Structure prediction request, 207 residues.
Amino acid sequence: AGLGGDDGAFEARYGLFPQYFADDYDRDVLLDGLGSEWYGTKITFKPWPCAGHTHLFLTAIAQLANEEPINVGEIARITLVGGSDLLQKQCEPKSERTAPARSIDAKISLPFLVAKYLKNGTVALADFVGEGLRDKDAIALAQKVGWRHDPALGRAGEGFGPGIVEILFTNGMTRTARAEAGLGSPNNPLTWNQIVSKFYDCIDAAA
Prediction:
């Protein structure tokens, strides 16, 4: 459209690359696909304010809840099955992952997040501060969450692979769901209404 730009922003003496990368970069990587490949289409819009890998298991639980309501009081055990090394890190040590002390820890603590979703039907910003972080009922439910690593579920590239949730109930019945991709990812996108709803939730939490 004839709009000019600063041609020294990246590579001139005081440009980004000399200043921060000491000219150690690969121009071909940066220019390959420029103007024809759009990375915006690969962006994930997280429906829940927690780490990306945890969304696989929250998505699987959401699938179960949408099929039939889950009676939390009848849950005997919850098992999370995945192929990423992140699964163990986000489930152990159990004492810290069931009752995380800080907001940043809670956002990567799968037992806590799974319990929050089962108890409240979602995971929200309020779950990571104040009474939300000290929710005794959610912490008690998180104690029932275990995990199992299955290398067959690993996936090359982004490395997460599918996530499986198995819920065993006190009557012996088991319900299982598998999420191939977390809700909000390009392969499992949010609707526009869901994106707008998240925007307003964030605004509500702002000062």
Observations:
- The first strand starts at residue 75 and ends at 82.
- DSSP finds ten helices and four strands in the chain.
- Residues 93 and 109 are 10 Å apart (CA to CA).
- The longest helix spans residues 54-67.
